[in-house]
Design brief:
Number of strands: 7
Order of helices and strands: EEEEEHHEHHEH
CATH superfamily: Metal-dependent hydrolases
Oligomer: single chain
CATH architecture: Alpha-Beta Barrel
CATH class: Alpha Beta
Radius of gyration: 16 Å
Bound molecules: zinc ion
């Protein structure tokens, strides 16, 4: 992600779509985004969504406030996953298989707050590699102590591509949190390429 492009993302609304598996539903109030413009500097800002995996079939909800996102990340959040936690791996794997053409990366599959303990990380990495989808190094998960370190380290060692993401919820976090992710990589002696 270059300097010129700053992405913001949010999570999908997370309810089950009625008759489709990958949908953009009208709802609340992202209406104002259409007229939103960055007036502070000349950095282009784009808006994305963490599309929520909702079941073991890999149905994904990307709906957020009547606005089609400019990019989609795939995420499993415990509060929006409607099937039993034991099926979480299947949910992620099926979602990658079905939606790999639409997604940018797979978010935080090692987050203990989001069913990380149930997720077979080897399977997720294998399928993500197979479909050329990066896995996320999520700085917020790492910083908050929610990363299952063995699983995160497995991702870093075995994923073909890593997407470093602050997951910041504030502007300050976009700088500081992201930096902490790179520090972790340095600490683990990974070399970085642009
Ligand atoms: Zn998330």
């Amino acid at each position: 992600m270059g300097n010129r492009l700053k992405p913001f993302r949010d999570t999908g609304t997370g309810y089950k779509p009625s008759n489709t598996s990958f949908a953009y539903y009208p709802s609340g109030a992202r209406y104002s985004l259409g007229g939103w413009q960055n007036v502070h500097n000349d950095v282009e800002v784009i808006f994305g969504v963490e599309g929520d995996i909702i079941n073991e079939q890999g149905d994904v909800c990307c709906e957020i406030q009547n606005s089609k996102p400019e990019f989609i990340l795939l995420a499993l959040h415990w509060e929006f996953y409607l099937w039993s936690p034991e099926t979480a791996t299947l949910g992620i794997v099926n979602a990658i298989k079905r939606h790999h053409k639409e997604i940018v990366c797979v978010c935080h599959p090692y987050d203990k707050y989001h069913l990380g303990e149930y997720i077979d990380i080897q399977q997720v990495v294998e399928v993500a590699n197979q479909y050329h989808i990066p896995l996320e190094l999520n700085a917020k998960t790492l910083h908050s102590g929610n990363a299952i370190i063995e699983k995160l380290d497995y991702v870093l060692a075995n994923a073909n591509e890593i997407y470093v993401n602050s997951d910041a919820h504030t502007l300050r976090g976009m700088k500081e949190l992201r930096k902490s992710a790179f520090e972790y990589l340095k600490h683990k002696r990974y070399s970085l390429s642009e």
